Amino acid sequence: MVKRKGSGEGHLKLVWDPAGRDQWLAATTQELRMGRYSLAGELLADRQAHEDVRDYRYLILAQIAASNGVDTAWLAEVPDSPEALLLRLRTNVIRALQAHRAQHPKAEGLVELAKAQCMEAAERFPADPLPWIALLQLAPAAPDNIPGPPELAIAGPWRTMGQLWRRDPWNREAHHRLLTAVGPKSGGSVAAVSGVAHWIASQAPAGSALLVLQLVAFIEAFRYQLEQNNLNKILLTYRNWSTAYAEQETERCYTQWFAANAGAGALLPDLHHLAHALWAGSQWQPASQVFDAIGPYALTTPWSLHGNPEQVLLMARERCMSGI
């Protein structure tokens, strides 16, 4: 077997870090795990970061703070810090969702508290989309659904989306949250996820990461099919990603988003979704370019849907970068 330069998958040591190539975020997460937050203040105050990168950084840090309470300590020390306040907000949304999923007796109170904090932050920072993103994240536990645009006829948190669109019309995380809010985990359907993803992606500007939403919709359909029957996963994968429509949308995402930007600024979850779709659709050569951009940085999703995520990811990477 002739290997492409840089394949070497047998010796590749995966790095399970959602920060990916964002070294500043990676260093900040390490500090935050130790209960320190000086780097977090600098990172989150970075005005040079794209809004999507800023949102992602807040989310990753909030996931850490939800387990060790560092957000509370930081806000107590610097109560006027916008960054500390917004991190506390994102962290409390995560805590409320965790309580909701666990059916904890205090879940309702935590959800209402998080919702109130979202509205307070929206009033304090009227131009900032982040409080509205946090409210969208809370939607599975605090639905506020109304009928959608006429061309969709899908109920969802459209009032919140309206507020978001006024501030950041093509915000990446907000639209991912919208898919969750209309999907099965929130009492919706796979069809609603597919319809909303198609509607958004069809309007997204060239080069937008929102083209990845179509691939997320394919994942949700695959997940639902797995839950409904015991079909062989390999056959099911082939069926899902080898249709003409799936191949067309995967190629469009690769060409108009990844290749158009040369992978610059792409967030790790989006890269993994694209690499997965290209691999599952047997588009080996473009997949190898995405795996190059990913490097050693591994995520569980979406590979875990096929089995052990480490084994599946390494196998997919090897296949796509083998040069066959």
Explain what the structure shows.
The longest helix has 20 residues, at 82-101. Helix 3 crosses helix 5, helix 6 (107-124) packs antiparallel against helix 7 (130-137) and helix 9 runs antiparallel to helix 10. This protein folds into 2 domains: 1-16 and 207-324, no CATH class; 22-188, no CATH class. It is 63% helix and 0% strand. The chain starts with 22 loop residues before the first helix and ends with a helix. The model is unreliable at 1-9 (pLDDT under 50). It is mostly helical and 324 residues long. 44% of the residues are buried.
Considering the chains and any ligands shown, give keywords for the structure.
324 residues, mainly alpha, 63% helix, globular
Task: Indicate the topology.
Elements lengths: L22 H11 L4 H7 L6 H18 L1 H8 L4 H20 L5 H18 L5 H8 L20 H10 L4 H11 L7 H14 L9 H16 L4 H9 L2 H18 L6 H13 L3 H11 L14 H13 L3
Characterize this entry briefly:
By secondary structure, the chain is an all-alpha fold. It folds into two domains: 1-16 and 207-324, no CATH class; 22-188, no CATH class.
